[in-house]
Amino acid sequence: MKRSLALLVILIAVNLCGFIAMYYVYFPWMEKLDTKEQQESILSDIRFLNFRLSLLDYSYSPQTIAKAEHELNVKIVGRTRDQLGMDPSDFQTLSNNRYGINMARPEGPLAYLLLNDDQTILTVGPYPKVDNSITLRDWFFYLIILSVFNAIAVLIVYRHVNEYLNVAIRAIRELDLTGLRLKPIKSPLTNIAVNTPRVVNHINGLSKQHQQSLYNQRDLMHAVAHEFRGPMARLSFALDLFGQTESESRRKELTTDMDEALEELDDLVKEVLGYSRLKDGRFPLTLENFDLRDISAETIEKVRTIYPEKQFVLYSEPSKSIPLYADCNLIERVMINLIRNAARFSNKRVKVALVQFKNSIEIRVEDDGPGIPPGKRTRVFEPFTRLDFSRNRDSGGAGLGLAIAKGIINRHQGTIWAEDSRELGGAVLTIHMPLKQKSPIIEAEDALKKSSTKKSKTSSAFDKFKKKRRSIDTN
Q1: pLDDT tens digit string along 44-99?
Q2: 278 within 8 A of 407, measured Cβ to Cβ
Q3: What is the pLDDT of residue 3?
Q4: 3, 6, 25, 158, 260 from 188: Cα distances, Å
Q5: Which residue has the higher pLDDT, 459 or 433?
Q6: Residue 214 banded pLDDT, cuts 50, 70, 90
Q7: Considering Cα of 341, then 345, then 349, then 351, what sign does the dihedral take?
């Protein structure tokens, strides 16, 4: 508010200065110029009349005066000194110069020409007074004055504002805006106007991501604490019983329970660490070529040992092999999580379908279980999410399997989603990902190729331009 008032005061002061300069400088100056111009014109007339009468030895007739009036377009009258009421000093000056001008007469400027008898004075005039009214020229000059004064004021304000804008631009450049490229604009005002909304939107997005990350971290900590309670309670209970019992067989059972609880805690810690690494993108990919069909078949055999009563079907297109260039260990972990999850919730049947396209692969894991409600198909990929909260860890798992699978697929530039199975009637988890992953070295090489291609195009265009110029110069 204060700066707006200051700017308004500056503009008012500038326009007031322009008015003062117009009234006290321009108008007197223009009046002086107009008076001088009229004086030169009158002197030219009186000199012409003096030359004409000098040829006649300063004797005149009515015909001579009439002809001079016609040529000069002004009235000429012969008068005496007394009739004119001329002061002695003015008459002495007229006698010395023979002609003179009186610009201060009320009726208008009047020119005098003294004849040889030193008594008769020819008066030429009166001429019209100088017009002091404001003309279009004056308004035009006034606009020029205002433009100059306002331009100076705007320049001063602009330079003052630019200092603050440059400070803001330097502060924006020092921000760590990962993922945001600002447009390089020379004008500070345009730079701020164009890039500030982008920076604000980017910061708001980062703030939302940070807030969501805090919420996720809080939920993760609560879920981890909740998951730790079960094995920790069993371990504490077994330790209490171990100190109270003296039976060796009972102590062996309690020792086995404690070992299982510790293994459960160890597995949980490994899963949480693996998930956090995938979430933060700190899990490097070890890319290699392998057959996805063989990996799927081996995974099915491993899960069949846990669920021998379930029927597993593997379908692949093509049926022989599906080559995949990715991280074999991570993809195998995804297949284990999905197939084990499907077997856990299925009634009897689990189907794994692999369909190869030109540059991508689609993996579908279906079961004939109860399915996933539409409102929870997105939440199942969140950590520690279970569809049935009455399940214990043995039947429901830790709730990290699908979250880890999603993190691995995201690292492979793929997508995963859940929907209803039309064939088996349960749930189907679908993965779509590229057949071949790009390593960081390959991506860097591609970027270099693109930049070199652009440079070659630019150089070729420049070479064509030089050849064209040479041909023109030769012709």
Answers
A1: 888 888 887 777 777 777 787 888 888 888 888 888 877 877 888 888 888 888 88
A2: yes
A3: 64
A4: 19, 22, 38, 10, 66
A5: 433
A6: confident
A7: negative
Output the CA–CA distances (angstroms, integers) from residue 195 to 158, 175, 202, in the order listed. Answer: 19, 13, 10
Question: 185 with 162: CB under 8 angstroms?
Answer: no
CATH number for 288-437 (one of 3.40.50.10540, 3.30.565.10, 3.40.50.720, 3.20.20.80): it is: 3.30.565.10
> CB under 8 Å to 345, separation ≥6 — which residues?
367, 369, 370, 387, 426, 427
User: Which structure tokens are listed for 147?
Assistant: 């433009």
pTM of the model: 0.48
Asked if 161 contacts 191 with a C-beta cutoff of 8 angstroms, the reply is no
Pick the closest to residue 335 from 303, 313, 305, 357 (CA basis): 303
Per the CB < 8 A criterion, the answer to whether 426 and 370 are in contact is yes
Contact 198, 182 (CB under 8 A): yes
Over the chain, what is the mean pLDDT?
Answer: 79
Angle between helices 401-411 and 328-345 (to 10 degrees): 150
**Identity of the residue numbered 118:** D
Distance CA 197, CA 175 (A): 15
**Domain ranges in the chain?**
2-124, 181-283, 288-437, 444-475
84 CB contacts (<8 Å, ≥6 apart)? Answer: 112, 121, 123
Show the tokens assigned to 295: 């990996």
Strands 110-114 and 120-124: antiparallel
| Sheet of 360-367, strands arranged across | 311-317, 349-356, 360-367, 427-434, 415-420
* pLDDT exceeds 70 at position 447: no
The predicted structure's pLDDT at residue 377? 83
CATH 1.10.287 for domain 181-283, yes or no, is yes
